Amino acid sequence: MNQPMHLDETPILASKLDLDTASDQDVERRFAGLSRLYGKAGAQRIRAAHVVVVGLGGVGSWAAEAAARSGVARLTLIDLDNIAESNINRQVHALDATLGQAKVQAMQERIARINSSCQVDCIEEFVDAENWPSIALLDSRFDRRQVAVIDACDNVRAKTAMAAWALKSKAIFISVGAAGGKRLAHRVEIDDLKLVTHDPLLAQMRYRLRKEHGANRQGLMGVACVFSREPVVQPLTACAVVLGKSDSSALLESQISETSQSDGSLNCHGYGSTVSVTSTFGMCAAGWVINKIAA
User: Fold this and answer.
1) Could you give the C-alpha distances from 8 to 14, 75, 123, 124, 152, in angstroms and in order?
2) pLDDT score at 143
3) pLDDT, position 237
4) Is the Cβ–Cβ distance between 207 and 159 less than 8 Å?
């Protein structure tokens, strides 16, 4: 199996199109449902598409899975983390067999079992203003009708850099807000960044886009976002129990955590999470992107 790439290396394409393999798996039959839904021309556009997923956690792993199951031609996966046991409750590639593995590598191997004709680029790096969009293997000549970016990372500077680029390049782009601390999957929605509420991460991105990049302050901003207006549930007793505290100290910690500020992460000191919500965020992002490409 090929290894993930870093920025200073020549891109390693892990799943190259092999005509014999494509014939064996019968691509037409495998993805025929797309033609019946989007029409033949729409399905062909999807199968020629390049989708970039930034962040392969509880949201991005599901978005990548959905893109692969939609038969896209190429996926670029960007994440620097490895799979931990605490990821199993919400990340599609987190299994006993993949613990400790690079997230991009685990996702790459999973996609090969879904759509072996999909070209997968694995990049173990974090996105920042200096390396975007070159890190995504995009050049100035990319076809904005066939390339889409799903921002599923939790770093506001990276999110801002990608959104500013998308506004300038008119690329198909969607940014995903914070899924931590949310319980109700049916409350997830997609709207313009201007109209997003109940999401401090996206609110910070909105502020930075306006202050640093001259984004629209009056009308819609032109950045699609996945988010939920459900109020955030503060961390409860789980961390105390995991750490082996007594019942009395666990109760005390739960009372403290309900009134204290969270650090905003999905670890033991941050918000809790559930796969029904994180996967919905990822599926909403992927569905929006696939529909844009097909249309």
Assistant:
1) 17, 20, 11, 11, 24
2) 85
3) 58
4) no
